[in-house]
Every structure is written in structure tokens, then in C-alpha cells.
Design brief:
This protein folds into 2 domains: 164 residues, 3-Layer(aba) Sandwich (Rossmann fold); 139 residues, Rossmann fold (3-Layer(aba) Sandwich), CATH 3.40.50.2020. By secondary structure, it is an alpha/beta fold. The protein is 29% helix and 28% strand. It has a 7-stranded mixed beta sheet with strand order 10-9-8-11-12-13-14, sandwiched between helices. Strands 1-4-5-6-7 form a 5-stranded parallel beta sheet, with helices on both faces. The chain contains 8 helices and 14 strands. The longest helix has 16 residues. Strand 8, helix 5 and strand 9 form a beta-alpha-beta unit.
Length: 311
């Protein structure tokens, strides 16, 4: 007998949670999330969750620290309310870029966030396109890292582009680009770059045949858009016919939108793991991965296999 499914959402991406609720035909659990006058976060679960299988949906986007704290308090409230199993559904996992000690006297922030989430009460984690897959190993509980690539691939396939080359903006994203290139039966190219400082990119060269091709740059996130825009300019200079940029997480911080609007990029394709209500612009296309996450939640609840969703 399967446990009763409960879906709770924080305030970071309510529209995403509502789409999942609709997909699962399960109403969101009545939950209070507010602020005291001094800014402290107050949460209260207004329904009985004892013995339930609870999924807490919270994207750790801007303001990341507030959203992390909100998630931790929700998890703690559920733990103290005797929920049978608590799954933290984190479409965008913050601090993921700080996943190793690459300089003296720096924290491994992604590991710290993972520890906090488990300590607060999460029994498992469901996320989408972690910045680096090894972050799964920072958790001592099960982690399901879903991929947005099938959703992006379906959209690109329907566009019917020809002479396509898929471009990885750095060496770390080659595997993601290779998978998409194989599915589109396209060529593969790699941008070789050097990053002299955080959020500052000096692009050096491109490896691969891109002349006369429709280039598709794929990355897991677009933050300040420095990498994507620099790559797009180089590709056009090297003879690419057109450039499309795709990502899973549209962070779009600082000058990102202005850079993208004034770049050679014809279309920016992203998913709804992060809300873009106040960040929309003409080139932006948003694809939803809510049904993908909703299906994963359904399968976890009924103790069915989730592995087929990774293909």
C-alpha cells in the first residue's frame, strides 16, 4: 500500500509547483510561509502529514540564501510532524559551482548545503541538471538527478534545422553536448576558454568545424551570460551561419539580459526550473520540465523505477 502523496511548495517557484500539482492531480498542501517583521522566516504546515510521503518543491534561485533557509525550515517542520518520507525537490541547486577546493582556504559550499538539507530532515533529493554530477556523492541519501536534455531535444528537433553543430562552451560540458549532437545527428565543437576571474571569461578558440553551420550552444546554466555571448561572437566570426543558445537554468543575473539581447544569438532556450517572470525578453523561449519532475515524483511515490526518465 502506497503512502499518501503530499506536495508542499516554498515561495521560490510557485508556478512550477502548481504545474506539478496539476500533472499529478494532487492539490498543494496548505502551507504558511511568511516573514516576521525583522525578516526571519516563519513556516507552518496547516494539514496533517503524519505518515505521508511528502515532496517539498523549492528552487534555490535568487535570493538563494533566503530560499535555502525556507527549504530547511520546511523540512524541519515536516520531520517534527512525523512525515514518513520527505523528498526535497530542488529544480535548481544553488552553490553547485563551488563543488571542490580549487584554491587555498575556500569552502566546498555545495557539500555544506547538502549536509544542511539532510540534517534538516530530507530522506532523498530530486533535482534537475546538477552543475557537476559528483555533487550526488555529497549526499548520504538517494539523489535523482534528472536531465532536461530530452525536453530541449524535442523542441530543437521540431524546429527542423539543417547543417547543425552542437557546441560545448567549455571542456566540462562536452558530454552534455555530445549526447545532444548524437540525438540530432549533428557535428560537435568545443570552445576553449580561460576564466581569469569569477564571472569573467576570455574566450580563446573553437575546436571543430562550424563554418556555414547552424550552431547550438548548450550549457547547464546562463548566469551573467558572459560565456555564452563571447562564444556566440567567436562562432559568428569563425563562419557559423547562426547561433542558438540553450540552457536548463536561466539565472540571468547582472547584465545577462542586456548582453543576450544585443548578442548575435538568435534564440535563447531555457527551462522553468527558475522563474523568469521579471526576466523575459524577445529572444527567450521557456520550455517546461514540470511534467518530467512530476512523473519522477509519481514513480518515487509508488516505488517504481525512475531510471527510464534519464534517457
Amino acid at each position: 500500500m502506497h503512502r499518501e502523496l503530499k506536495i508542499i511548495t516554498g515561495t521560490s517557484n510557485i508556478s512550477f509547483a502548481e504545474k506539478i500539482s496539476e500533472y499529478l492531480n494532487t492539490p498543494l498542501t496548505d502551507t504558511l510561509v511568511s516573514r516576521f517583521s525583522d525578516g526571519e522566516i516563519r513556516v507552518q504546515i496547516n494539514e496533517n502529514v503524519r505518515g505521508s510521503d511528502v515532496f517539498v518543491i523549492q528552487s534555490l534561485c535568487y535570493p538563494a540564501n533566503d530560499n535555502i533557509m525556507e527549504l530547511l525550515l520546511l523540512l524541519d517542520a515536516l520531520k517534527r510532524s512525523s512525515a514518513h518520507r520527505i523528498t526535497a525537490v530542488i529544480p535548481y541547486f544553488a552553490y553547485a559551482r563551488q563543488d571542490r577546493k580549487d584554491k587555498p582556504r575556500v569552502p566546498i559550499s555545495a557539500k555544506l548545503v547538502a549536509d544542511l538539507i539532510q540534517k534538516a530532515g530530507a530522506h532523498r533529493v530530486l533535482t534537475v541538471d546538477l552543475h557537476s554530477a559528483q555533487i550526488q556523492g555529497f549526499f548520504d541519501c538517494p539523489v535523482d538527478n534528472l536531465y532536461a536534455l530530452p525536453v530541449i531535444y524535442k523542441y530543437l528537433e521540431e524546429k527542423g534545422l539543417d547543417d547543425v553543430v552542437v557546441v560545448s562552451p567549455d571542456a566540462g560540458g562536452v558530454e552534455r553536448a555530445r549526447v545532444l549532437a548524437n540525438k540530432l545527428k549533428a557535428g560537435l565543437a568545443i570552445i576553449y576558454k580561460r576564466r581569469p576571474a569569477p564571472n569573467v571569461v576570455e574566450t580563446l578558440d573553437v575546436i571543430g568545424d562550424i563554418k556555414g553551420k547552424n550552431a547550438i550552444i548548450i550549457d547547464d546554466m546562463i548566469d551573467t551570460a558572459g560565456t555564452i555571448v563571447s562564444a556566440s561572437k567567436m562562432l559568428i566570426e569563425k563562419g557559423a551561419k547562426s547561433v542558438i543558445a540553450t540552457c536548463t537554468h536561466p539565472i540571468f543575473s547582472g547584465p545577462a539580459i542586456d548582453r543576450l539581447e544585443n548578442s548575435p544569438i538568435e534564440e535563447v532556450i531555457a527551462t522553468d526550473t527558475i522563474p523568469t517572470d521579471n526576466k523575459k525578453f524577445e529572444k527567450l523561449t521557456i520550455l517546461s520540465v514540470a511534467n518530467l519532475v512530476g512523473e519522477a515524483i509519481r514513480r518515487i511515490n509508488i516505488e517504481s523505477s525512475v531510471s527510464s526518465l534519464f534517457t
